[in-house]
Structure formats: C-alpha cells, structure tokens
Specification:
Chain A is mainly alpha-helical and about 600 residues long. In chain A, about 55% of the residues lie in helices and about 5% in strands. By secondary structure, chain B is of the alpha/beta class. The chains are: A mainly alpha (about 600), B alpha/beta (about 425).
Chain lengths: ~600, ~425
C-alpha cells in the first residue's frame, strides 16, 4: 500500500488524484485491516472452529510426551482453552503417586534437618560412598516420574530448564546437589523467571558446575558470570568482556556448603566499586542479576527459546517480541513481570503453535522418545524407565550429564545412522517384541565394556562406566589393578561380570506388555482399524499409505510368513501386535513429534 | 615398503584425471586442481585415514617414554620406576617401556614419532575438562560443541549436502566428541555386528519398505530422518560386510580391548570404505593406586595392538593410507602418591605412527625438576600436532579449525 502511494505521489500531474486515492485506499483497507489485525497479530489465538483432534494430539506431544487415545480424546473434548488451562495450571492436578517419597530420602536436604552432627556426618559418608549408584537411581526416578505423572507439562518444562540452566554430574560429582537442582527446576518450571534466575544463581550444583566456588576476590573465575549472561539471560553478543569481568567480581564469595545450602563467603567477596552495564557502585551479585533482568534482551531471549522448544525453531521476530512483552507485563506484586504461565498459555493457544511450520516438525529427543513410548503403551513405568534410561543414553541423552554448558543442542543433532538404529532397536525392546536374548544374540559385543574409559575424578575415586560415574573404594581399585595385571591375558570373569553395567541389566528388565488386551480395551479388532487408530495416536505425522498397507499385511501374516487373517482372540494376536508396533516405532515418522 | 610423497601425489593426480576430466577443463594446471581439491570436497574424498587411539584416564607418560637417564626420575619414582637396563633405550636420556618391543622396532624403522611434553596453556587437571579440550582442540573445552575431527569433516564437506555416513567412525559405545561435527555425524558401534537393526526374520521386508519412503524435495526434519534411514542401511551393511569377511593371521594381542577395535579398523581400511577417521579408546589409565603392574600391562596391550595393526596394514598394502595418533588427556604427577600410584598431572607424550610419519623424537622432554605445582610443564602445544595432521595428512586448512596454530613441521613426509 505504501509503495503504491509513493509511486503515485511522485507523479506530478496526478498528485491530487493520488492523494484522494490514497485516502480512499487507506479508509477501505484500513477498515479491513482492523478486522484482520485481530487475526494477524502474532499472538492471535487459534479460532475455536479450527480446534480438532490432531491439534489436541499435537498439544499433548509438545506440552507433554504424547499419550494414549483416551488422553487425546479428553483434551480434545475440553476445547482449546480448557485443554491448555488444564495442562498449564497443573498444580490443580494431583501429580499422581507421591514421587518425592519414592526417592531415597537420604538424598533430600530436608532429611538432614533436625539430625545430630554425627548423624549428618554419617549420612554424608553414605552419600559419598553411594554417589554413583544414587545418581543412577535419581535418573531412573525422574524418567519414571516423566512416564507416570498426570502433569506432563511440569516434567517437560523441568527437562527444558535442565537444558537451559544446565549442570552436569561429571563436574558437580554430587548426586545430592543434582537432585536439589532438579527440585528447584521443577519448583520454578512455570513460576516467576526473575525469582528463578536468582535462585539458580545460588544453587550448589550450578555454582560448582560453573566454578563459582573458585571465584574469589583478586582471583576471579569468570565462568559463572559469563554463562549467566550468555546462556541464562541475555544471549550471546549482548554484553562486553568488561561486563563479564565486573560481574565476576560481584559474584566472588558465592559458594555453597556440603548439604547444598548457599553460602556467602564475605572474606572472599570483592566489596569494591564495580561498573556493570552502566550501573556503578558496590554492586552485589543480586544487583548484577537484577540489571540483567531489567534488560529487555532477557525476555526476548527466553521467549525465543521457549517458542523454539515448544513450537518450531524459526519463530518470526515479531512473535518473539510480542511474547517478550507479555512476559514483562507486571502482574500483581510482580512489578517487573516475568510470570511464565501466561506466556506458556499464549504459546499453546496461538495460531502460530498450530500452523504447519509447528506441527509434526520436531525431532524427538531420546528422552521424549523413551518416555513417549512408555506412556503410549501404558507400560509399567519404573521397570521400563530403566530400559529407557539406558537406551536414551545410548541414543545420546543422559540425564544429569549434558554434553556441555549449552545443554543438548537437539534437532538434527540427535540423528546419525547409528543413533537412528539405537532408536529403532529401542522400539523392539520396549514393545517386548524382542527379548533381551534375541537382542544380544544379534548384536554381539564381546568387548562391550573393556575399551571403555576408566576414569576417576579427583575428589571421589571412581570410574565412568558407560554413562555412569561409579565411585570405587581404593581397595576395589587396587583389586582391579591386580586383576588387570594377570599375565595370561584371559578375560577376567569377575571384571567382565561387573562390567555388564546398566545397559546389560536394563536389557534384562522384564515387564509385561499385554498388547492384545490393550487393543481390545480400545474396542479394536480389525487389522486396518488397529493400524489406523494406533498410528494416528502414536505418530505426530501421517503414516504414508504404503506403510499403512505394509503394517496391515504384517498383522495378517503368521510366524512362517504365510498369510493368515489376524484374529484378536487367537493365541498369537499379542505377538503379531507387538511385531507391528515394533515396526511402527522403527520408522522415520515415529521420530517426529 | 614406503612409497614416497611424490608417488602419492601421482596417484592422486591419476585418480583425478580419471575421475573428473570434465572438471579439469576449468583449471589451468594439475597442481591447481590438486590445490583446489585439497580445499574442497576432495578433502573428504581423499583416501587417507587417520586412526586415533585415546588413552583415557591420564596416561603416565613417564612410564611410557621413560627418562631413564635422569636421576630425578629415579628419585621421584621409587615404586613405579623402570631401571635403566630394563628400558628399551632410544637414546641416553629416554627409552620406551620394557613392554613396547614392537613400537621400538617401528621407531628403529623410522615410522614412530614421539612428541614430548604435550599439553596446552593453563592446563586443567580434571579428566573431563581436559578431555574436552583435547577432543575439541579448543581451550574453551565444553563451550565448543564440536570435535576437531568433526569440524574437519564439516569443512571438507564444503557446499555438499551430506557426506558418506561412514566418513567418521567411532569404535565404542558412543561417539566421542572429537568426531562429532555440526553437519557430519559419526557412526559409532561397539562391534560392527552390533551396528544393525535387530528384528525377527519375518520383519525385515516390512521394515525395509517402511524405511524406503521417498523424501519429498522439501527439507523438513521428516525428510531428513528418511534420508538418514536410507543411508543407515547401506552404511551398516558395508561396515558389517567389510568386517565379517575380514581375516588376518596377525595376532592383535591378548584381551578384548584395543586389539579387537584396531582389527575392526584394519578391516574397514582394507575394504576401502570412504572412511577418513577411525577413533578408538583404551581405558584403565587412571592409576592412582598400585600403578606399576597395571600400567605395564596397559603398555603391553597397547604395544601389541599398535604393532599388530601396523603389521597388518603393511601385509595388506594399505600402510601408505594410514597414520595413527596416540594421546591421553594429561600425564601424571612426577612424585608418587602414598598408595603406589600417581595423581593427575599435566604434560605427556603423544605418539604418531605410519609409513608417512617421519620417525624420531620431537620437542623437548619436560624438566623433572622445574615443575608447575609438581607437574611436568608443557614443551609442545598438542594443537601443533593437530595442525600438522590436518594440513599435511588430511589436506585441509588448520586455521579455520584451530585458530592460528604453529604446526609441527616435517612430522609427516
């Protein structure tokens, strides 16, 4: 419109006509624009009429991990508003089993309150000794929780923040602290981001992971100061090296004690004058964080990341700006805003979240894949979680052990040829179509563990076994030394047995999957409707028609490859169904959500 | 046994003439063409292979390349030392661990280079942080998400969309960061036989059809996964075919570890897959306790595996295509600790072997008395070895990958 008017007006003879034209144009278009502005605004909600079952499925995949037909039906029935509110205001839903109680109490800080000095001392010793094993349990506990919770978004967000406010056990080396951080991430997952940052900055695991316990007056360690800006708030390029130096000084003396509490060590703190982003004075760490939160870039950065995680990776800047404005809207006593729930609701209700750029466009992370499969198949979560955790690690995602300070890069980074086969092979195991024995027979790995890194950290003696850091006592270490020194070179049975690690034991996990019962419960019996309903429920994209035909014909085939009609009442119905699901999960389509 | 550099260039020329006479028309001379090839995709299309052996846990360099002529060594290492008469002496000052007879022979044949005192500025004594630095070739460590060899492959990819799935091969449970690139991803397996889709026999036909759905032209993530799925099939097949039919009478040594992995590497090389990097690891080097027996055993295994590998390559006529690099994330403290072991240290030796390696010792052995907090000081920046391998072996520019780094000259002939 503007281009047109300028062209007209540059035409001398037609100037007056042009002005009239422009007026008319502006009036007519203006009126229709105003009507459309409602729709076109970047945050416009999806019109009610466009809400359908596929969109409910999409919502459950993204705001959760996907699920059963029943769950999708329920969300669909609630309508867009109701579905989003139910998922986001998850506090009103009981999370399910008492997850906190399931996890070893010893790990939780509360457990140390009210104990005598000796008891605390003893408890710490136990913790140190069992550090690695407890980490494995913590990991399994979290996956179980993700697979079982009635508040999927709570866990999905906790997973998101685990990749945002990243800490890794390899550097932290303390399961208690990792557990406390996980609690913190869950507590603030959809809370107030400003308070969140302040609390994360005082979290023991974070201070350790980013070396702030080594940040002292006169001997600054800038790691934490840098990442607070680069990764947590502003995003790269929105601060200077001078800012980092000054911020690092403000954070000197921020450290923690062994029970995971924050400690401000005055003797190590630099009380001098600082000059940070235009602010001068005896700035504290809190001042630095407040300055970062007052900076408009922070909301833009966080909202861009949130939309990329839940929607798609290339949101328009106007969309992100609008979300950022929403995040900074003051609400109640939160004068600077930063309430996350309204932004989450806006995202999940927005048209942009349901357009074709968003739907069916993401590659599932290994944890999403694993948790999703357990939820979709309604498997016993605790046992399946053990298998899932080991397999997710193989696929490249180990909880509490992100690859670097940026967390997991995600997207296509997850997929290499071998990682894809790891995903496909997980499908065989989780559907119970392959037994552990079949699996191991076909993938012999005689030197499975022997070539593996055997490291120990400086503070806690131990080894990294596969994904897991396993502490060892010096005695055990030395015995291994003796074993390894055996001159005959024969594989040492004891070591081999011990080396069979998580993966092996996880493979051996037995849990039932009554496939025929599951299908019958959905009132399905015919092969075509079984394939249609299950693929619609389990995939976020359409199953190609050729693939559909293949799966139906697989159901109609017996063990010997002869065609024989599928019968849900027949003895081999479950076996055929498991085989079909194994295949359905071994497709490119299943990798997408 | 050793072909000269010029004959390799001739081979390269002839293969370029045969392969791309059409492209030739655009270039002035063959040398330009070779130069152009070196900077572009041909960096990946070349047939030279780099094998990396990572010694995980912090190898005690002083027990591998022993400074037997230094009194300070014998004083500091009362429990773990090797006597001068036991050491395989290379000169009056240093010698190899008594268990490294094959490597000694390679050294004498001019095919083993020992680079002394390797580390980097402001060394980190944490396994993970230091390993991150070695694997990325970047002092920022885990702030750099991609490995130095992954970035090499990315760079060689140039404008091409995809590289062969077997360009970067990691033998191990998961791919080490060193071989993870942004665009070129490694393939990783514990054994070739485990790199496969596992299913019941009746399922394979269906599986193939489900995974043969054509990608549309659009570049969605689904299309991407479909493409990878197709290349997974051929990649897994070619790896398994290469290794299952592979036979060698050469003994790769006791134990199941590194020897078996290098045997797999030899099979992949023999099959002439388009693999440029093969990455192996060997654990058990974190010797805080009762070091001597354990470390000597490691040295024997390392010696047996590397010796057999080199012998096997020569037997197959493949030795001109391969260079092997051995490193660890750090060396160990000069003084022993109270439990017959040694704690985390700093500088340590690297080894390089192959027909095109100019044998001998490089760099100065770090002083055993002038120490940094009890540790050997760096005399060689390990990135200078990387630079030499990138420039002179993998035919690519090192500056975009490592920054400005002085390369170790004349290491590769």
């Amino acid at each position: 419109m503007f281009a047109q008017s300028s062209r007209f007006s540059s035409h001398h003879g037609l100037r007056t006509v042009a002005v009239k034209w422009v007026l008319v144009l502006t009036m007519t278009l203006g009126a229709s624009c105003a009507a459309m502005a409602q729709d076109r605004s970047p945050l416009a909600a999806l019109p009610k009429a466009e809400w359908d079952w596929n969109k409910a499925r999409h919502l459950l995949f993204r705001a959760g991990f996907g699920g059963t037909k029943l769950e999708i039906d329920a969300l669909h029935a609630l309508g867009l508003e109701g579905a989003v509110d139910l998922l986001v205001d998850y506090e009103s839903t009981p999370s399910g089993p008492d997850f906190a109680g399931e996890f070893p109490e010893a790990l939780r800080r509360v457990a140390m309150v009210g104990l005598s000095r000796e008891e605390i001392q003893k408890k710490r010793q136990t913790l140190r000794r069992k550090n690695g094993r407890l980490l494995g349990q913590l990991r399994q506990w979290w996956i179980t929780r993700m697979a079982r919770t009635k508040r999927p978004l709570e866990e999905k967000l906790t997973l998101f923040w685990h990749g945002h406010f990243t800490s890794g056990f390899r550097d932290v080396r303390n399961t208690l602290h990792m557990c406390q951080q996980n609690d913190l991430l869950r507590e603030y997952a959809s809370g107030n981001f400003a308070e969140f940052v302040h609390n994360v900055a005082k979290d023991a695991a974070m201070l350790e992971y980013l070396d702030n316990n080594r940040n002292r007056r006169g001997q600054a360690n800038e790691n934490f100061a840098r990442e607070v800006m680069e990764l947590f708030t502003l995003g790269i390029g929105n601060y200077s090296e001078e800012d980092i130096k000054e911020a690092a000084r403000a954070f000197t003396g921020w450290t923690f004690d062994q029970s995971g509490g924050f400690v401000f060590n005055q003797r190590q703190h630099d009380f001098g004058l600082k000059n940070f982003m235009g602010k001068k004075g005896r700035l504290t760490g809190e001042d630095v964080i407040d300055t970062l939160l007052a900076n408009d870039r922070t909301a833009v950065y966080i909202c861009g990341k949130l939309f990329s995680y839940f929607g798609h990776r290339k949101p328009y800047p106007v969309l992100v700006q609008a979300l950022a404005a929403e995040l900074r809207t003051p609400r109640g006593d939160k004068k600077q805003g930063y309430e996350l729930k309204p932004v989450l609701k806006t995202i999940f209700k927005s048209r942009a979240f349901y357009d074709e750029k968003s739907m069916g466009c993401r590659i599932k992370s290994p944890i999403e894949l694993v948790v999703g499969a357990i939820r979709q198949l309604e498997l016993p979560a605790d046992k399946a979680a053990r298998l899932g955790g080991a397999m997710a690690a193989q696929m490249g995602q180990t909880l509490f052990d992100p690859p670097n300070v940026k967390g997991w890069a995600g997207g296509r980074e997850w997929i290499s040829t071998s990682a894809l086969y790891d995903r496909y092979n997980f499908a065989g195991l989780v559907t119970r179509d392959l037994s552990a024995d079949t699996f191991r027979m076909q993938t012999p790995a005689p030197n499975e563990m022997s070539a593996e890194a055997s490291m120990s950290s400086g503070a806690v003696g131990g080894r990294v076994r596969g994904e897991e850091f396993v502490p060892t006592s010096p005695r055990e270490d030395s015995m291994e030394g003796m074993e390894a020194a055996r001159a005959d070179g024969k594989p040492d049975d004891r070591k081999a047995r011990r080396d069979r690690s998580q993966t092996f034991r996880a493979l051996q996990m037995r849990f039932p999957f009554p496939a025929a019962k599951m299908v019958k419960a959905k009132d399905l019996s015919q092969p075509d409707e079984i394939v249609d309903v299950l693929s619609r429920t389990f995939l976020a994209v359409n199953l190609p028609s050729t693939s559909r035909a293949e799966l139906i014909s697989y159901l109609n085939t017996d063990t010997f490859g002869k065609s024989s009609a599928f019968d849900i009442e027949r003895w081999d119905a479950s076996r055929r169904l498991k085989g079909m699901l194994h295949l359905l999960f071994s497709t490119p389509e299943y990798q997408i959500n | 046994m050793t072909t000269t550099n010029s004959s390799r260039r001739n081979f390269l020329r002839s293969s370029i003439i045969a392969g791309s006479s059409a492209a030739l028309l655009g270039f002035g001379s063959l040398d330009e063409l070779i130069a152009a090839g070196n900077s572009g995709l041909r960096g990946l299309g070349d047939d030279r292979v780099l094998v990396v052996v990572q010694l995980s846990g912090g190898n005690d360099g002083l027990s591998m390349v022993v400074p037997h002529g230094d009194d300070a060594y014998h004083k500091a290492r009362r429990g773990t030392r090797h006597r001068a008469e036991d050491v395989l002496q290379l000169d009056k000052y240093i010698g190899l661990n008594p268990g490294m007879k094959s490597l000694r022979a390679l050294y004498d044949g001019g095919e083993l280079a020992i680079v002394q005192g390797c580390s980097y500025p402001t060394p980190n004594r944490s396994h993970f942080k230091s390993m991150d630095i070695w694997q990325t070739g970047d002092l920022r460590g885990n702030a750099q998400p991609y490995g130095w060899l992954g970035r090499f492959a990315d760079q060689g990819l140039g404008a091409a969309k995809t590289a062969d799935a077997n360009t970067l091969v990691g033998i191990g449970k998961k791919a080490e960061r060193a071989i993870i690139g942004q665009r070129v991803k490694p393939v990783a397996f514990t054994t070739p036989q485990s790199y496969r889709y596992v299913a019941n026999p009746a399922q394979f036909d269906t599986f193939d059809k489900l995974n043969e759905v054509e990608s549309t032209t659009e570049e969605s993530n689904l299309d991407f996964v479909r493409r990878v799925s197709k290349s997974a099939k051929s990649s897994s097949y070619s790896i398994r075919r290469a290794t299952s039919g592979y036979q060698s009478k050469i003994d790769y040594g006791p134990g199941r570890g590194l020897g078996g992995d290098l045997r797999t590497a030899a099979a992949i090389i023999a099959a002439r897959l388009p693999t440029r990097v093969i990455y192996c690891t060997m654990g058990g080097y974190d010797s805080h306790v009762n070091q001597k027996g354990r470390h000597d055993n490691n040295m024997r295994q390392l010696n047996a595996a590397l010796g057999a590998f080199q012998k096997d390559l020569v037997r197959m006529g493949q030795a001109d295509r391969v260079v092997t690099m051995v490193f660890s994330e750090f060396g160990r403290r000069v003084a022993e600790n109270g439990s017959g072991g040694t704690d985390h240290g700093v500088a340590g030796p690297m080894m390089l072997l192959g027909n095109h390696i100019k044998g001998g010792t490089y760099g100065k052995h770090p002083s055993l008395t002038n120490l940094d907090k009890g540790d050997l000081k760096m005399t060689t920046d390990f990135r200078s070895v990387y630079a030499a391998l990138l420039e002179d072996w993998l035919s690519t520019k090192s500056a975009p990958l490592l920054g400005k780094t002085r390369k170790l000259r004349k290491l590769i002939s």
